[in-house]
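Bug: token stream looks shifted between consecutive jobs. Job 1:
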Amino acid sequence: MPALAIGQQTDTPCPETIKVGFNEWAPYSWTDTSGKAVGLDVDMLTLVANHLGCQLTFIKMPAKRAHQMLQAGTLDLMMGASFTEDRTAYAYFSDSYRTEEVRLFVKADRAAQINVDKWQDIFTQRLKLLVPTYGWYGLDYLRSKEELSRQGLLVLSPNSHQSIQMLSYERGDILIGDAIALPYMAQHAEGVVLSPLNLLVDSNQIHFMFSKKVNNRTLLNAINQSISDLSHQGELARIIMKWQQVSLAQTHEMPPKPTGELHPSKQPDGALNSSGSSDSNYSR
């Protein structure tokens, strides 16, 4: 398992290196061409750890394995996690360090033609909604999924990449997904520019998860204080802004195209912990 260590300080609340599991889910986490862990969540955790003088080792692995190792205590931490009661059996949750949003998108060249201010607009305007099969897309979608299908307005696909491709071929009108990951994926992997619609479909607080197998309460409290300090200083918001404004141009840092594996925070507990609105998010 490739690993990357960050930080070399002593006299910290984490005298040992913190082992962090992650998978390929751009722009939240992935490995660049040199094997370095990069991404929004990587940047945020690194900032929090550096604030405390802690050392991190990022270990790339499938989501299911990371959850198993977190339960066993051989992994210390996972990023990008949504809170669920069943996970509290083996993990502590930090305070929220960012908010995840689910939004609707259209191709940029159709932004002037389509406007959705409320969920019912999908029905009244007869808009075909493209939805990746796996993921959490809010209560409005959950409650209306069968009716969307009955009226021929629901177009399911195996993953977000295929949904983006289908949107580019006009096999659907609007696309649902993670507000940061979906446009990034579309621009960098598919060459499609997306525009968000007005409606905020869902939002969810995102946390770090710590193994309960090891006594991480002291570290948890220190990281919560670091999150609070950096939030009040505006440092966490600056990282989010940076990733929201990432250039549309592809660079040598561009992540590989995901294979469709769910992100851990969004998956059932058979996989890594993730929130569900994305294909590969680690802890939802």
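Job 2, same session, no restart:
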Amino acid sequence: MPRDPLAVVDRGAACLLGGALGDALGAPVQYLGWADIQRDHGPEGVIAPPRPALVTDDTQLTLFTADGYLRAYVHGRKTGAWEPIETVWHSYRRWLVTQQIAAPEPGAVGLLANERLYSSRSPGLTCLRALAADVPPTPEAPHNESSGCNGVTRTAPAGFAPSAAIAYDLGCRFAALTHGGTGGWVSGGAMALLIHLLAVRGRPVREAVDQVIGRVLRDDPYTANALNRAVVFAEEHRELGLDSVRVDRLGSGWTGPEALAIAVHTVLVYPRKSEFVDALRAAANHSGGSDATAALTGNILGALHGTAVLPRDWLVGLELVDELTELGRDLGRSASGEEFDESRYL
């Protein structure tokens, strides 16, 4: 059991809110090259989310991951039958409904009753096609070979599982529900494990990253190598005293391993509580998947530091802030043994 349950609850909320802030910051520039970002937003690039700060499908699916996991948690406590993979699969299928109709149907409950989620934010075709299948894919029986970043960007809630081993396994399997390439689902497990070590176990960030690399190496040397390069480049950055962060050396962030490596690198360069905004800006301002890389950076820093680091002026305009806060807190409560209103997940 975590030593400070209230801190875990706070980190749960910060993890989801931080990810959403990064998502909203990077969303306007996600398809632009660095030169185009500077042309549209100035020499420093994008420096704050727009008002309102709208999220992408990454945050939408993160909410449905959290909701599905908590439904499985509550059902398991009441019946002894714990089936998080199947439950999250059905949760993703509920998200798919929000992409197909304009508003909630009569009698909708839970997230399906929230009309703000009935907005299509350019979801990836890989996710849409995978979730239209009759049978949920697994790492052992994938439906495609995609290693795109949309698998890893929604797995942070798995980090609040009961143990590090379970967090890693769930992260892998949640990502594999849409992304069957090894890097696509291993990066999901790596992200969940990292969140667990930071938010639930309170590990120092460098120690947590090293533990993640060691675990990932057994399943996918490519992803482990990408994360190791993120560490090496961060050490070089500090030794050379560089002013700017060059995340492009780790790729564009369109794949799961690249996106997670960019986020880990940025967090290691800007690990302090006072550097949250600097980290998100560095993660967003590059040619590539800016929303994914900034969202993962926000997830990680939120899990590391808690809500105190989140800029209040950014939160004021953030879409779905109430849902993100409550689901994040309930994830933290489930991980720390604190009571919460389980009726919303029945």
